[in-house]
Design goal:
single chain; about 190 residues; Rossmann fold; 4-stranded parallel sheet; 4 strands; about 45% helix; about 15% strand
Length: about 190
């Protein structure tokens, strides 16, 4: 049986991946594909390192822990909005791992041909263009309210409700863990003993 993985992504916590799921399920069902895994995340495709589920999917394929014939997604811009080269690189990477990307919204992905790189370039270009325009509108709106005297950001003197350890945060952000963090993590994994 043909195995398929779903990749669902939205850019913010105000959006829901559940909106994409029914279309992917119906698409897979009409083709008789077995849904082997669902990778779902709320993460911007612009922020490096935040697409943890995409990284896990690629790792699963690359290490051979999982084998999928297809990666099914709502549309290609769910993978990346970083432009032509990023989309082409991901497309080729999946292909080298033996997994074909199929998009519900871009039907031509189901049967790739010699025009596929051109279509991918167009999708990559327009995904980035749309993202750039959205950012420009947001910055223009922020500049407008700032010009009217509205102070942006957290009010002066306010504090987080959660106490944060800046040094620990920076270490985790850099992909490292302090020995105290490792010990705390081991304690949690051992059941709090």
């Amino acid at each position: 049986m043909t195995r398929v993985a779903f990749y669902l992504r939205v850019s913010s916590t105000e959006q829901h991946t559940d909106n994409q799921l029914p279309a992917l399920q119906a698409f897979a069902k009409t083709r008789g594909w077995e849904v082997a895994e669902v990778y779902s995340e709320n993460a911007s495709s612009w922020t490096a390192g935040h697409q943890k589920e995409l990284a896990r999917l690629l790792d699963d394929l690359g290490t051979g822990r999982r084998r999928y014939d297809y990666l099914l997604l709502w549309s290609l811009d769910r993978l990346t909005r970083e432009g032509i080269s990023s989309l082409l690189a991901l497309w080729n990477h999946f292909r080298l791992l033996g997994c074909q990307i199929v998009s519900v919204k871009e039907s031509w992905t189901e049967v790739p041909n010699e025009m596929t790189p051109i279509f991918l370039a167009m999708i990559g270009f327009f995904a980035r263009w749309e993202s750039d325009r959205r950012s420009e509108r947001t910055l223009a709106g922020l500049a407008r309210v700032k010009a009217h005297g509205v102070k942006l950001g957290r009010p002066r003197g306010s504090k987080d409700q959660q106490k944060r350890n800046r040094a620990g945060y920076l270490l985790r952000w850099a992909g490292k863990q302090s020995s105290a963090d490792k010990q705390a993590q081991e304690t949690v994994l051992a059941g709090g003993k």
